[in-house]
Structures are given as structure tokens and as C-alpha cells.
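Forwarding these from the shared drive since the link keeps breaking.
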Amino acid sequence: MKDFLPILLQVGIVLGFGVVTLAISVLLGKAAKRTPAKDMAYECGMIPQGGAQPRFTVKFYLIAMLFILFDIEVVFMYPWAVNFKTMIHTHGSTIFWSMAGFISLVTVGYIYAIKKGVLDWKKS
């Protein structure tokens, strides 16, 4: 328990500061009148038009997911490529064939995405 005392003390100070700050704000703050004009979003002096959240097609999300998948592929491949020479001495050709299997699985996913038309922007 002695080791955790500084952490508990810091958590207590942080929580106390947050509660005291909010209490002072409520007690000393002045409540303003709410009107529709004041509640409207400020757009550089212009009256906002349209909804708050524009609607995106599913294609944007599919491209984002594909980007994340292939970005993670690079995250796995870069350290493998940097350490390939040292790993080939310890693991033999197993290290090469394991990465070849990984790349083939990712390639199958990429071909599937192309066949489904995920990357075809002109298709509706």
C-alpha cells in the first residue's frame, strides 16, 4: 500500500481540482439566456446551411478499412525486412515462407476487394 500512496494522492488531487473548478464555475458563473440564434453553430459570420453531419457513401468507409488493412501489412513487413538477414541464419527458409504465406493471404483479400468493386469509383 505504501507504494501506491503517491498515485492515490495524485488521483485525489486531480479529482479534487476538477470538482472544485466545476463547483466554482456553477456558483460564480452567470447563466445566459438561450435563444435559437445563440444556439446556432457559428460559421465565420455566415448562416450555416445543411445538416451538421454530411452523409458519406459506404465507399469511403470501405476504402478506409482497406487502407488500414494494407497499412497494418506494412507494419508487419517492415521489421521483417529489416531483420531478414539476421533471421535467415537462425530460422532458415521458414521465415521467408511464413512471410510469403502472409503476403499471399493479403493478396487474396486485395483480389477479393477488386472483384467486389470496392475500388471502382464510377460504379454506383
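-- next protein --
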Amino acid sequence: MEASSFSYLPKLTVSEYLKLEETSEVRHEFRDGQVYAMAGGTVNHNRLTRRMASLFERQPSLKRCGVFSENMKVEVVRGVYLPYPDVVVACHPFDLRGDNLIIRQPRVLVEVLSKSTAGNDRGFKWQRYRQMPALWYYLLVDQYKMTVEMYSRVEQTDEWIYTIYVEPEEVIVMPRLDLELTIAAIYDGIELIPQTDEGAQEEIE
């Protein structure tokens, strides 16, 4: 999901930010005391987000986990950075409490790439997501062409393996969660519109 590149409120504490979100009709990303309004996405962005969430929800190995799309905050850096990833898979009981507002120990994060967010998702976000000890997988799903990129954490290390999938018959394997996703299933029935520079918005630094 996209975020506007300007802030319009003084610096907030996390508590003040959470109070703001309770009553706001627009979701905001929190970065070091500043808030950024989340903008709407394309039809394909929405469809791919829902598709990824649905595919995860169907996995028997995740029956004890929770799958959330677009509306759950993740505490990436405590007190500093709380974004809304497009899809979140969390398995820790603390994260799955019914009254919980923030996911703190996600196993999987997914971002569907947009013109204005691809650089941010690969740069700023990835550099911070990879520092989360609980995170095992980070997926980038392209909405303009059949391409999924995945970063997989090497067990008991801070090292990551990068894999790219571009063919419908390829299978994304996540052994630490005992699940597989096919590229064909992700893009099934979705008409891909090639990306152009028209209407591109400025990326967040």
C-alpha cells in the first residue's frame, strides 16, 4: 500500500499515534514520530494482496497462525517504525490475541510492488524488515509482470538468500513453514498491465 510523502502533524509518541489511528478514517504509517497517510492502490494491487492472503490461509501448516492483509501494523523498530505491510503471517500466541493492535513477531511479510513504492519496498523497508529476529521470509510481488522475489533467512543467522520466480510452473518453497505456493496460483485470472512511467508518483526516501 502506498503512503503519501509528506507529514502534516508534529512529532508523535507511539501512544499518540495509536490513539490517532483509533479514530482516523485513513491509515497512517509511523516513522520516528511522523505519520504518513496511506494512499489507495490499483485493482491488481488489491487483488494480489487478497490472493496472497488467501493462499496462506489455505495452508494446513499455518492453521495455528494468523494471516492479515493491509490493516495490521507491524512493529519493525520499537518506538520508531510501524508500517502496514500488504500481507502478514504471524504465529506467536501473543501476536494472535483478539484485542491485539500490533504484530511484533511476524514470520512472513509480503509487499505488492507499485510504481511509487518499489524502491521503498526494496530499500528502506527491506533494510529494516531484515533486522527483525522473528522474520523468516520477505516476498515482493510484482503487479505489472509475473515476478515474485523472495528473501529467505538462513536458520540461526542474519544471512538471507534471494530467489526470483518468473515462470508460472515455478514453486515458492518455504521449508521453515512447511508450505509451497505456485506462481501460477498467485497470478491466476489476473490481467497484468505492463508498467509505464505515466502517473508515477515520487517514492518515499
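Helices lie at 14-23, 43-57, 118-122, 124-129, 183-187. The mean pLDDT is 90.

- D.
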